[in-house]
Structure formats: structure tokens, C-alpha cells
Amino acid sequence: MTGLQKGLLLATLHVLLVCTLGAKLLYDRATRPHVWIQVATYDPELPIRGRYLAFNLQVPLEGFSARDDASPYTSPFTPDHCELRLRNGVLTAVANPDGEFWVNTRIVDGKQVALVNSQSLYFIPEHAEIPWPQAHSGEELWIEATIPRSGAPRPIRLATKKNGVFTPLPVN
């Protein structure tokens, strides 16, 4: 086998490897559940550059208990890790000290919620103009995401929610 043939064989194997990953992601999108999740954006320190949003998921809590020694600098609930599970069509942070996701719990509008650091990234076209939700007008930012068997939810699209109505954001 010549060097050229070896190189072509290696390139073909790489293309096949990438295609199998793409096929798995498409299969998951077609077969796994999709849910809407309220999110808060943050700016991560990642070596990649470009236009993307990183999300903390704001979801209901299950199985967390109040911390006796809560201070202004610690979460009022324990433990500080969780697993993400679907409960009646709602993504929920289920307490698990050995869980995959780090969680910061808080009380928002009188309800206990979890801000889950899921490393869910949503890439945006370079010149896209996005009508960001305005917090003072009661709009909230949400994502529709595929929920895989394990790992972080995979964002599909962005939307704003106001008065219970989702309005997908045009990100073209």
C-alpha cells in the first residue's frame, strides 16, 4: 500500500467517524423528547471564539433540602450536584451528590429553582441580528432542547416567552 493510499484510507475513516456522530445526533433529535427550558445566558471562558450563547438552565428542584449553615455566599439548599430528569414533560434537577451537573439553588418568585450549569452552547450565525428579550417587559429567554439519555440538553432553537406564549427568535 502506497503512502497516498494510506492517506486516503485514513481520511475516509475520519469522514466516516464524523458521519456516525452526525447520524447519532440526528437519530437522538428524531427519537428523544424535546422540552422548553428557561435559561439564563453567561459568558464562559472557552478557547473557541465566535458567536455563541452558553446557558444555565433554570429548572424546578426535586430532593434538595434546606441547609442549616446557609450564608450569603453558599447555596441555601444541599447537595450542590444533580441529575437532569424529565418529570411530566418538565426537565427537573434531581438531587444527587455524585450527579453530573453542578447546581446553584435559589428562590425565584417564591419558588425554589435550580440554575444548572449544563455547558449547553447555542451557536449563532456571525451577522445575525437577534431581538433579545427585555426583562423589564416580562419576556423570558427559553430554549427548545433535545434531552439525551445522558449529558447536557442539546439546544435546537431559541424563543422568548411572554404571558405564556412562546415566540421563536429568528436566528438566520
Structural account:
- The protein is 17% helix and 45% strand.
- By secondary structure, it is an alpha+beta fold.
- β10 and β11 form a beta hairpin.
- The strands form two sheets. Strands 2-6-5-7-8 form a five-stranded mixed β-barrel. Strands 3-4 form a two-stranded antiparallel sheet.
- It is globular.
- It starts with a helix and ends with a strand.
What letter string, H or E per element, gives the SSE order? HEEEEEEEEEEE
Biggest beta sheet summary? 5 strands, mixed, barrel
Main-sheet strand order equals 2-6-5-7-8
Task: Kindly give the count of domains.
Answer: 2
Q: Distance between the terminal alpha carbons, to the nearest Å?
A: 47 Å
- Fraction of residues in H or I helices: 10-25%
> Which structural class best describes the helix and strand composition?
alpha+beta
- Rg from C-alpha positions? 20 Å
Shape: globular
